[in-house]
Design a protein that fits this description.
single chain; 45% helix; three-stranded antiparallel beta sheet; alpha+beta
């Protein structure tokens, strides 16, 4: 038994500096909390950028729809009653979030409004969740 204890003492790593110690559990938890906060702030910026990109893509898509509505108006001398008359593809009239773009005639059919409800799909909102409105002609 004594031979076994001597063997493990020889094999066990020895600290070259007296009084050296490892990290305590509290120190490890503090480091993990700091890393988590930094990651959270970074991801917030990434997701905000993605929302702004979708908003820009939706604005571009709505201008494409506007051009198609104007082309329909030139050919038929009136605005369409709905966007299916312009293009029957169901994805044609969806915004970047996958919500349908709202279309309504105004002023007795002399103008129209296209509206995307933004990322949240509800009226109002701010930033990426804000409504996007395009009026024509």
């Amino acid at each position: 038994m004594n031979n076994l204890v001597r063997y493990f003492r020889q094999v066990a790593p020895q600290s070259s500096i007296k009084g050296q110690r490892g990290l305590t559990l509290i120190e490890i938890i503090i480091v993990l909390v700091i890393i988590g906060l930094a990651t959270g702030m970074l991801m917030k910026g990434v997701f905000k950028g993605a929302g702004e990109a979708r908003k820009g893509l939706t604005e571009t898509k709505m201008n494409e729809i506007k051009s198609s509505v104007l082309l329909y108006q030139m050919r038929n001398n009136s605005f369409p009653q709905d966007l299916n008359a312009v293009d029957s593809d169901p994805d044609f009239s969806k915004d970047a979030w996958g919500h349908p773009v709202q279309y309504r005639l105004m002023d007795g059919g002399r103008s129209y409004e296209l509206k995307s409800l933004g990322g949240d799909g509800r009226e109002g909102g701010t930033g990426g969740d804000g409504d996007i409105v395009v009026k024509g002609p």
